[in-house]
Amino acid sequence: MEIVILPDAAACGELIASAMAELVERKPDALLGVATGSTPLPVYQALAAKVRGGSVDVSRARICQLDEYVGLPAGHPESYRSVVLREVVEPLGLTEESFFGPDGAAEDVAAEAIAYDRSLAAAGGVDLQLLGIGTDGHIGFNEPCSSLASRTRIKTLTRQTRLDNARFFDSLEEVPHHVITQGIGTILEARHLVLLATGEGKADAVAAAVEGPLSALVPASALQLHPHATVVVDEAAASGL
Ligand code: GLP
């Protein structure tokens, strides 16, 4: 695992956006797996700036989701489909046609999760998966104790994760209890994993993931199993290393 420590979130965003731009230059139809949350925003902003400046052409790139809330209609402003369209797809000048993810409002959510897992492989696999990390060490929505071999499936959110994500909703009650998330085994199939963490609030989770033992209690520690994993952190998130 490669650890990159940079002074601040903007520098982290710039570095990862450059890695994405290089990938797309090498492989124009690369499949980029994107994460939601506040942490990756500087990456998307830096990549969109490169697109606007003409230094990279992402018009053939494809984007896919890491996870999705169950029960929110696709058009709900906080469904991860809406979030990724708003924060990634549209700023990059792409359309919905370049983008796919699981439907959290599907009638048969379990079947939808399996179908989404298969669609990733059918699309040729994820070339670069960007990950954030939860304060409890989760990746995607794989909460502690998720199997390290898990596939895309329904999960129940912990109270802590619902509290962490309540800021995007009007109240805690509105935060869904269930989600579809790529499993840890699914995530590990991406060719390059890039985990980004910024801020002191992530320092303990980063230290446990990077320097702790491989453990289902810390889902992000699964990156230790991957042959090409890069952890990008600012100085605050690196403070526990
Ligand atoms: C959610 C997402 C994760 C993300 C996490 C951290 O749980 N499912 O993919 O990593 O939030 O979000 P933030 O970056 O806002 O701290």
Automatic annotation (TrEMBL):
The record's section on Pfam families has: Glucosamine_iso (PF01182)
Q: How is its activity regulated?
A: Allosterically activated by N-acetylglucosamine 6-phosphate (GlcNAc6P).
Source domain of life: Bacteria
Describe the location of the Glucosamine/galactosamine-6-phosphate isomerase domain by residue ranges: 9-225
| Alphabetized UniProt keyword annotations | Allosteric enzyme, Carbohydrate metabolism, Hydrolase
**Where along the chain is the active site annotated?**
D67 (proton acceptor), D136 (for ring-opening step), H138 (proton acceptor), E143 (for ring-opening step)
Q: Cite the EC number.
A: 3.5.99.6
NCBIfam families for the chain: nagB (TIGR00502), PRK00443.1-4 (NF001684)
What job does the chain carry out?
A: Catalyzes the reversible isomerization-deamination of glucosamine 6-phosphate (GlcN6P) to form fructose 6-phosphate (Fru6P) and ammonium ion.
Family of this protein: Belongs to the glucosamine/galactosamine-6-phosphate isomerase family. NagB subfamily.
State the name under which the record lists this protein.
Answer: Glucosamine-6-phosphate deaminase
